[in-house]
Design goal:
about 450 residues, single chain, eight-stranded antiparallel β-sheet, alpha+beta, globular
């Protein structure tokens, strides 16, 4: 077993008074905690939680703030993640890796690659912390595996009474089932163990395709590819498809210049400029969409997994995403297109479509059903409320489940109706946190009180 220690940070683990605001990545959520701490160990988390309970404060742990909802907001004790970081143990034989909760996905993937190992799947960014990503159900796209939570084999968390609970499929299995997508409602996650596998290569194929063709052939594309997704550009009939499949090689990454042009100049630099123009003059958005949807061309490359799954995301936005029964997703997407065309809305961001197989996690958005995800975005600073509300009306009509970390208006009454195991989760919460030490207004809305 390889022992890898990469802890770091300069913040004190002691709890300190603070009235400085905390903001998320998009800037749409702000919280002003009474106290802030940056513990460096599980023991320090225990001490901080017990002190907060004694002071009558609520406790919330934050990651890097990539959620758009106030999942981690608190006016009590804010637990920062940076010193709970590092790869604690990597076992290539057992094919597991254990990391501190605050470990970034970037650090985790770099360490795995250095040891010839890899996660099976992940989302499209690496800035999140491991605990933040699993707590809100972060997912990629995949025929047999999609979410990070589905790759967990063990979770360690500190509960409201200061106990350290280590859980897995064989140890406190009911807690493990719930904690894999726990919303920060069960305790402070301090360590996570993921299943890993020997590193492999992925060949990525990116190809423009007409909207009508991709929606008609969607099930075929999903069945024929290990990882399939596409982006539809509103105000156009154009889509960009992405197919990632395992490959025997050879390694053939994007060229330095061509990769920079696609991932930085077009996807970030020029897109940022286009969004800024569209925000200032909304009437220009349809024309910009027609041009930008034709700029991205086909390309094929082969690389190690995390370099294929992820890409830089420097244009800031707000997002709403719903998980639908896969069989209804294309009908919902066509309704979404028709709604945009008749509404007069101007939408500068593409709509992203991904998939996931059914899993057995109570609050996973793919719990118990094969799933397709429809994600909509608006450039930061652009009014989004009317667009997202119209999207939600379509998604809820199809039994959609909102992503826990993305903007939505659903409450516990609705969510209990679309999650068959909702009561199983809230029963675990009632047992572990009866006084709602880890609660906040968002959790009261989505879980009830």
């Amino acid at each position: 077993m390889a022992k890898v220690a990469t802890r770091g940070g300069t913040a004190t683990g002691k709890t300190a008074g603070s009235r400085s605001p905390w903001r998320n990545w998009a800037g749409n959520v702000t919280a002003t905690p009474d106290r802030v701490c940056a513990p460096a160990s599980t023991v320090e988390v225990v001490e901080a939680v017990r002190a907060a309970v004694d002071a009558g404060l609520t406790v919330k742990a934050v990651g890097t703030g990539h959620s758009f909802t106030p999942t981690a907001a608190t006016d009590g004790l804010l637990v920062r993640p940076e010193r709970l970081a590092g790869v604690h143990a990597l076992d290539p034989v057992a094919r597991t890796v254990t990391v501190g909760a605050g470990t970034s996905l970037r650090q985790l993937n770099a360490t795995l690659a250095a040891h010839g190992m890899s996660l099976s799947n992940m989302g499209d960014i690496m800035e999140q912390t491991a605990a933040g990503a699993i707590s809100t159900g972060t997912h990629g796209t995949g025929r047999s595996c999609a979410s990070l939570s589905a790759q967990l084999t063990a979770v360690e968390l500190v509960t409201a009474d200061g106990s350290v609970l280590r859980c897995s499929a064989t140890e406190h299995p009911e807690v493990f089932a719930a904690a894999r997508v726990g919303l920060g409602a069960l305790g402070v996650v301090t360590a996570l163990t993921f299943a890993i596998e020997p590193q492999f290569l992925l060949t990525a194929r990116e190809e423009p395709m007409p909207f009508d063709r991709i929606t008609e052939e969607f099930e075929q594309w999903v069945a024929e590819n290990e990882h399939f997704e596409f982006f539809w550009f509103p105000h156009t009939g154009n889509c960009l498809t992405k197919r990632n499949n395992r490959s025997p090689g050879p390694l053939d990454p994007p060229g330095r210049v061509s990769g920079w042009v696609e991932d930085e100049l077009l996807s970030n630099g020029l897109f940022q400029a286009a969004c800024s123009i569209g925000r200032a003059v909304p009437a220009t958005i349809p024309g910009i969409a027609q041009v930008s949807s034709r700029v991205l061309s086909s390309r094929t490359y082969t690389d190690i997994p995390y370099k294929v799954f992820t890409s830089p995301r420097r244009v800031r936005f707000v997002e709403c995403e719903y998980a639908l029964p896969r069989a209804t997703a294309m009908a919902a997407l066509r309704e979404l297109r028709a709604m945009i065309e008749r509404s007069g809305l101007r939408v500068s961001f593409p709509v992203e479509v991904r998939t996931a197989p059914a899993d057995d996690i109570p609050l996973s958005t793919a719990s118990g059903r094969d799933t397709a995800y429809l994600a909509v975005h608006m450039y930061r600073g652009t009014p989004y409320e009317a667009y997202f509300a119209a999207v939600e009306r379509i998604m809820t009509a199809h039994g959609g489940r909102p992503h826990w970390g993305k903007l939505h208006g659903r409450d516990a009454a609705y969510l209990a109706g679309v999650y068959p195991r909702f009561g199983e989760f809230t029963a675990v919460r009632d047992r572990l946190d009866p006084h709602r030490t880890f609660g906040n207004a968002y959790l009261r809305r989505v879980l009830g009180d």
